[in-house]
Amino acid sequence: MTHVTSGYSGGSADTAQYETVSSGTTGHAESVQVMYDPSKVSYRTLLKVFFLVAHDPTELNRQGPDEGTQYRSIIFYTSDQQRKTAQDYIAELDKDKTFSGPIVTEVVLLKHFYPAEDYHQDYFEKHPKNPYIVFNDWPKVSRLQEVFPSLYKQYNQ
After folding, report:
1. 117 in the same domain as 72
2. Which of 33, 34, 132, 148 has its CA 20 to 30 A from that of 6?
């Protein structure tokens, strides 16, 4: 990755604040903007990490303990190639019955990305012992190391 930014997508600029997005009425989804070098990692590889490590794509309007439309499973694409690759990969996962239920991930054109407040940026690195991080995010890091060892970069606590 060259850069990762926490933020909001799917709603308007005037509602792109955590407290407002948390209401679940803004159209936003909490999202992450990933800037990457395609010569080092493919978009399909990023999709694999998204689906197999980062979250459960079968949960509608929730991720782990977090509930609401702002936690829906969604991919915001920026090109027709990304859209097609994402849709094809979802179809492949469904065909292979990779998950116990149907994938509910939306694939939607990115209109705008709004960076989240500063205290949300690099939250994992700043708060590695926070109970939310310990119970919800550290297991994902372990899974990344297990499933994609070549992509895992040691985190220094």
Report:
1. yes
2. 148
